[in-house]
Structures are given as structure tokens and as C-alpha cells.
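From the pipeline queue, job 12 of 40. The input is one protein chain; the requested action is below.

Action: predict structure.
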Amino acid sequence: MVNCTEVRPGNAFLYEGQIYICINIDLNKTAMAKMKVKIKSKNAKTGNVLDLSFIGGDKIEILRLEKKQMQYLYDDGEGFVFMDVETYDQVSISKERLEWEKNFLVPESMVTITEYEGDIIGIELPAKVTLEVTECEPATRGDTVNKALKDAICETGLKVRVPLFVERNEKIIVMTADGTYDSRA
């Protein structure tokens, strides 16, 4: 247990039975009142962002999360199967927990899995991934008034707006934070 003022961005802590990760901390001390501590934090399981308020002197339990590099293998129908590349142990994570991440998972891609006491909290994707375009509209000549973009569907089912020169079966690089086109692969 540490004082709430000692929490730093990136620290994981336990609050009301839930695991949170600190995004930002704001300390406010006035002459007449006790220190007020606001911790902007993300719930590690649900992804919800909350502002938690404490008073200086409150104690928080800091947690040590374990991170492992794992390789995505396949979709088993109920979840996604990952393998630890060092021990070859396999783990399955339900599809409901990876709604956004599934748009970027292709077989043999590497991700970072976060665990706490053997319980999987979530996965971290690389900043950019390479995906193959499986469907795209043909380019329309003369349609260059705005940014000349068209819709494309990638191998994972992700729909991306791409430049007119991108064709079917081409590989593109996509940003995992917002699912936007970055460049050709």
C-alpha cells in the first residue's frame, strides 16, 4: 500500500475490487484544505476511463502486472487462441473481450498480453499492422475535389478509407489506435 500521491502514469492499482491503470494524476493543494488527488484511470478489463478522487493520505494498493509477448494463432469459434513463443503454452480469449482488437489480428502476428495473478486482463496491439485488402471499390475518375479516398475491406473484415491507387490483394499499413490507413506495405 502506498500513498495516493505516489501513483504515476502507467501504474496499475486496485480500487473497489477493480484493476485500474493510471493515465494522469492531478494534485491540488490549497492553504485551507487537504490535498485533493484526481487520478484519471482506465479500467483494465472494461476499458472505461474514470476520474477517481482521493484525499492526500489515502492508501492505494499498487499491482505488478505481468506482460508477455504472444503470437496469435487462430480463431477457435468462441475465442482467439494465442501462444507463448517461449513456453508454447496456449491461451484462448473470448471474442467479446476483443471487439476492437479482432480487426487487427492476423495469424502469426505478435501482441503483448497483460496478466495479473494468472488472469488475463487484456492485449496490447502494435501501433501499426499490415493487412491485405480483400475488397475495394474501383477508382472513380475525376473524383478528386476532396481527399481522393475509397472504401476497402481488409482480410479481418475492417473497413478502411484508402487512397484511389490502392487495389485488391495489396497490403496496406493500418493504425491500430483508430483503424485508419497509414501507407502501403
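Job complete. Residues 18 and 43 are 7 Å apart (CA to CA).
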